[in-house]
Amino acid sequence: MIMGLISFFASFVIICLWGFIGHKLAIERGRNPNLWCVLACVFNLIAILILVMMKKKERIKVPLSPLSEAKPLAEIVQENWYFLNTQQERLGPISFSELKEHFEKGALTNKTFVWNETYTDWKKLEEDIVTIKELEKKANS
Q: Could you tell me the CATH superfamily of domain 67-140?
């Protein structure tokens, strides 16, 4: 009885060790660690050998846009702005201060479509983070 428990416990520890090795190797190789943990527990050395023979999978690194691409506040303020009202009528050109007034009155929301000369197409106000932050800052002050 005791020998059976010891044998079971030893087998369990060895299986967990195979899983741990598979998990760590999978992380190093850029593979799914959970999948390879299970495969190593079930297939032991065979799964580990397959994983070792696999090439490293490189993750695609998306370049972050530099902050220098953000529009300066002076540029935002000097632009002529257009927006679509609730009836989808184009209003403008208006200055940034007039845009702020419409925002404070509730005529503009984050979902309102806006446009100025620097945009290639109409976009929701919430898509221009610099502008929306400036509008919210002015509205809250």
A: GYF domain (3.30.1490.40)
